[in-house]
Write a structure and sequence with these properties.
Blueprint lengths: L2 E10 L3 H11 L3 E8 L4 E8 L2 E8 L5 H9 L2 E9 L2 H10 L10 E2 L5 E5 L9 E5 L8
Parallel strand pairs: 1-4, 5-8
Antiparallel strand pairs: 1-5, 2-3, 3-4, 6-7, 7-8
The structure holds cobalt (II) ion (CO).
Length: 140
């Protein structure tokens, strides 16, 4: 397994504008981008945190996984994402070790990343994502 570093922390939010104001104006973090990721049906606000970033995720519709999360668990910490160099190879390696994968192959994520989620039942309750590449996360 070749996890290189923490890529980002994902937080599920209902009111993106209010939370952007909190992280940007109250905590003073640098807002890097706000973009939509149609594949996950989310709008994402990214804040730089050194080598890692904080991603605020709000659903674009009721079918979004974030909408279902908010309904069940409310706002708060949603997932941790680890940067890897070769996502398909890492997914194959984890599957070989018996890890339950939500995404068996890479999906498009924010900032040009390729991402895949591991099932929390294989990660002791922490929804975990692997991600590869991307202009904000992999290229620096
Ligand atoms: Co993520």
């Amino acid at each position: 397994m070749a996890i290189e570093r923490l890529s980002h922390i994902g937080i599920a939010v209902r009111d993106l504008d209010a939370q952007v104001r909190f992280y940007r104006d109250t905590l003073g973090l640098a807002l890097e981008a706000i973009e939509e990721v149609p594949d996950q049906q989310v709008r994402v606000a990214s804040f730089r945190l050194g080598e890692a970033s904080l991603e605020l995720l709000t659903p674009l519709g009721p079918e979004s996984p974030i909408a279902r999360f908010l309904e069940k668990r409310g706002e708060g910490l949603h997932h941790l994402a680890y940067a890897v160099a070769d996502l398909p190879a890492e997914l194959a390696a984890l599957a070989g070790k018996g890890v339950d994968l939500i995404d068996k192959s890479p999906r498009p994520g924010a900032a040009g990343q390729r991402i895949a989620f591991l099932h929390p039942r294989s990660t002791f309750g922490v929804l975990s994502e692997l991600c590869e590449g991307g202009e904000h996360h992999g290229g620096r």
